[in-house]
Design goal:
Layout lengths: L3 H13 L16 E3 L13 E14 L6 E16 L2 H21 L9 E11 L7 E16 L6
Parallel strand pairs: 1-2
Antiparallel strand pairs: 2-3, 3-5, 4-5
């Protein structure tokens, strides 16, 4: 049995990969999903791209003893990277891609049954300071994933 935290990442990654125009979304951001990469190392040929990684996990113990349940909140940060030559089109495409991610979350609030629920948290957009001919827009966002495990077993 897999550790739930890893199962959550896998389910989120799998869902993100379905974000294509052919699947009814606005963008094809799902064609380049990268895990645990520094966005500054993403090449222009990989963009548009979405980079996912964990930033923090908070826990709350309910009950006493070996049958206690741990309520966990895993914060997953993701960055949407868009390249282009026009500031408006780059920022618009980043916002559309993020809307696709939020639509995905609304369509499967439990990430394929791995979580209790998922809540979109924050968004911030900026242009990266890269020395290239193209502009690179970076939309940084995060979600909180609430799930539970048994105290002595992170797999259940």
């Amino acid at each position: 049995m897999a550790i739930k935290r890893l199962a959550i990442f896998d389910a989120f990654e799998t869902g993100l990969k379905t974000i294509t125009v052919a699947n009814g979304f606005r963008t094809n951001i799902g064609n380049s999903v990268l895990k645990f990469r520094d966005f500054s190392r993403v090449t222009a040929s990989e963009m548009p791209a979405i980079v996912i990684g964990a930033t923090r996990e908070d826990t709350e113990l309910t009950g006493i003893g070996k049958n206690s349940i741990v309520l966990r909140t895993l914060t997953i940060e993701y960055q949407i990277l868009i390249k282009g030559t026009d500031t408006n089109s780059v920022s618009d495409e980043a916002v559309e891609a993020n809307s696709d991610v939020e639509d995905l979350i609304r369509s499967d609030e439990t990430l394929a049954g791995t979580a209790l629920y998922v809540v979109p948290k924050s968004n911030e957009f900026a242009f990266a300071d890269k020395a290239t001919a193209d502009l690179v827009g970076v939309l940084t966002s995060s979600i909180d994933v609430k799930y539970r495990t048994q105290y002595f077993n992170p797999e259940t």
